[in-house]
């Protein structure tokens, strides 16, 4: 009897907070939307943060496990910095290089990541950093097709993406395996 | 203090306008459809980012402190890669770009799979 109660407790927590990080995110987003951190705003944010994950849970039953939010924050800052640097270099390429001089190529990236969320985030990062656009995924999701605007060596682009972004995303999403 | 904020927000406005201009110029100048896709991603990230930064800083100089522009940037950063992804998928479908190399591990690229080449057949995927 006591054992079954102990088992029921995490189940209940899971049912009320199916996505705990989504709850936190919704509270923060609500405070930012209304531009205030007054107690009333936070209370309404908490209500929304509980109700929205609760009612959308049937559409989103898979909860990603082993997600490390603090590593995610440092990853976000790295990406923002890279966007700034790459923007300047790509603007320079667009303004100064002639079209015929640009060596735009396809780059194929074999993926080590298996989590769909992590692959989505990697593809989004590649598109947001100027100079590379992720175009397609292979039919079983083991390779990513990326278009580079001006790359002397496609292998260098591939290695940079793999070491700079994919390794970090693997630590954020899949460190257990 | 307010004067410094105003100067910084003016600089941010200029930077944003400059990068949006370079982005539109790139859209006109580049010749290949896939290359052209690179221009709006640039305008969408640093261009809009700097303009939104200017808006936030300006709101602090006028005393109406507001940070909800950050959400505009967050939603833009989440949605911009997806629209770029769709545009590149259309190019792959219609063959208006160079044919990509075949994937080393799986049979075929997802976009070029069933719709273009019929059922997933390795020999067809090569063409």
UniProtKB/TrEMBL annotation, chain A:
GO terms for cellular component: plasma membrane. It is a multi-pass membrane protein. Pfam families: MNHE. InterPro entries: Cation_antiport_E. The chain crosses the membrane at residues 21-52, 72-95. Keywords: Cell membrane, Membrane, Transmembrane, Transmembrane helix. One of its GO terms (molecular function) is monoatomic cation transmembrane transporter activity. Its main location: membrane. Belongs to the CPA3 antiporters (TC 2.A.63) subunit E family. This is Multicomponent K+:H+ antiporter subunit E. It comes from Roseivivax halotolerans. The lineage of its organism: Bacteria, Pseudomonadati, Pseudomonadota, Alphaproteobacteria, Rhodobacterales.
TrEMBL record, chain B:
It holds the Pfam family PhaG_MnhG_YufB. GO terms for molecular function: sodium:proton antiporter activity. The keyword Transmembrane helix applies. Keywords: Membrane, Transmembrane, Transmembrane helix. Residues 94-127 are annotated as: Disordered. The chain crosses the membrane at residues 6-28, 40-58, 70-87. The keyword Lipid metabolism does not apply. InterPro entries: PhaG_MnhG_YufB (IPR005133). NCBIfam families: CPA3_mnhG_phaG, PRK12674.1-5. This is Multicomponent K+:H+ antiporter subunit G. It comes from Roseivivax halotolerans.
């Amino acid at each position: 009897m006591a054992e079954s109660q102990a088992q029921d407790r995490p189940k209940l927590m899971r049912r009320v907070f199916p996505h705990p990080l989504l709850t936190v995110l919704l509270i923060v987003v609500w405070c930012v939307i209304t531009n205030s951190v007054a107690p009333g705003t936070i209370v309404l944010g908490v209500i929304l943060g509980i109700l929205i994950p609760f009612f959308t849970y049937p559409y989103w039953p898979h909860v990603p496990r082993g997600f490390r939010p603090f590593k995610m924050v440092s990853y976000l800052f790295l990406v923002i910095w890279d966007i700034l640097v790459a923007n300047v270099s790509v603007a320079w390429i667009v303004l100064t290089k002639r079209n015929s001089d640009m060596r735009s190529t396809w780059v194929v990236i074999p993926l080590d990541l298996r989590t769909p969320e992590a692959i989505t985030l990697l593809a989004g990062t590649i598109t947001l950093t100027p100079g590379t656009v992720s175009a397609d995924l292979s039919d079983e999701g083991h390779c990513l097709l990326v278009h580079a605007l001006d790359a002397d060596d496609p292998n260098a682009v591939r290695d940079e993406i793999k070491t700079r972004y994919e390794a970090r995303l693997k630590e954020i999403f899949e460190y257990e395996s | 203090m307010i004067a410094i904020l105003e100067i910084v927000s003016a600089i941010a406005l200029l930077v944003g306008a400059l990068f949006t201009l370079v982005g539109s110029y790139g859209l006109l100048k580049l010749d290949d459809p896939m290359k052209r896709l690179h221009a709006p991603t640039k305008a969408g990230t640093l261009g809009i980012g700097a303009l939104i930064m200017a808006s936030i800083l300006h709101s602090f100089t006028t005393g109406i402190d507001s940070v909800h522009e950050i959400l505009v940037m967050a939603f833009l950063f989440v949605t911009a890669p997806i629209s770029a992804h769709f545009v590149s998928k259309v190019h792959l479908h219609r063959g208006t770009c160079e044919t990509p190399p075949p994937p080393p591990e799986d049979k075929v690229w997802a976009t070029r799979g069933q719709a273009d080449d019929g059922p997933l057949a390795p020999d067809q995927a090569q063409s």
